[in-house]
Amino acid sequence: MAREIVLDTETTGFDPRTGDRLIEVGCIEIEDLLPTGRTFHRFVNPERLIPPDAIRVHGITDDKVRDAPKFHQIVGDLMEFIGDAQIIAHNAAFDRNFIDFECGRCNHPITGEARWIDTLQLAQKRFPGMANSLDALCKRFKISLVERTLHGALIDARLLAEVYLELKGGKERVLDLSAARSTGSDVGQTGPRAYGPRPRPLSPLGTPQEHLAHAAFVRDVVKDASLWAAYGLEVAPAEAAA
Where are the domains of the chain? Predict the structure, then answer.
């Protein structure tokens, strides 16, 4: 079972190397491209003031994170949640730079580039030359943005999980008919529907004379009538078609 973590961050700015810090992280767990319902969300005290330009984007103020834990206090829980899963992010280099920078500051092993999948790159390959921001992709895939008035790590991770599903095949995945044939009721079924035998076979529409004529044809043309018998057709003796 393929386990992946969709991750988003909010920060004080664009570059941790110039003093910007992480202030929020949100994660969504998915398995085989389906959300499991497990999430991780923390606000983080950045140990610095948040610039007004950043507040206008995500609405996170100094007061909101003043009593939040520092990154070194949440990194263990964050990495335990991520585990060995691959990490999905939009413009992944941005989030990875902040996560790895914060890990480096507290002497925690970094995630490393190889573990990250960038949905921006996936979108650019699928929609070259088009707008491929998270907002643009949500509109393209008809994913509702009604609850998103400001950027937020967890809500953006939820939206990105839906976008990632669409980029990987989306609703077309439910057309997979390889599941075993169902033997019981399908009430409440959430996976691909498995079609079983018709509960009440349709009544035959041919007349008795037509059935006899067809049976005679099969007898004359097909030397081994056992194949037809397997489908419930009784081949008439020679005199029956006479």
Answer: 3-173, 208-236
DSSP 128-164: TTS--SHHHHHHHTT---TT-SS--HHHHHHHHHHHH
Topology of the domain comprising 3-173:
Nucleotidyltransferase; domain 5 (3.30.420)
Residue 68 and residue 42 in contact, taking contact as beta carbons nearer than 8 Å: yes
Q: Give catalytic status of residue 58 as yes or no.
A: no
pLDDT band at 212 (very low <50, low <70, confident <90, very high): confident
- Active-site annotation holder among 41, 90, 151, 211: 151
Distance CA 132, CA 50 (A): 27
pLDDT in tens, 75-115: 999 999 999 999 999 999 999 999 999 999 999 999 999 99
Inter-residue contact 44 to 67 (CB < 8 Å): no
What's the number of CA atoms in the CB half-sphere (13 Å) around residue 169?
A: 8
- Are 144 and 166 in contact by the 8 Å Cβ rule? The answer is no
Q: Write the DSSP string, 57-101.
A: HH---HHHHTTSPPHHHHHHHHHHHHTT-EEEETTHHHHHHHHHH
pTM (whole model) above 0.85? no
pLDDT at 123 over 80: yes
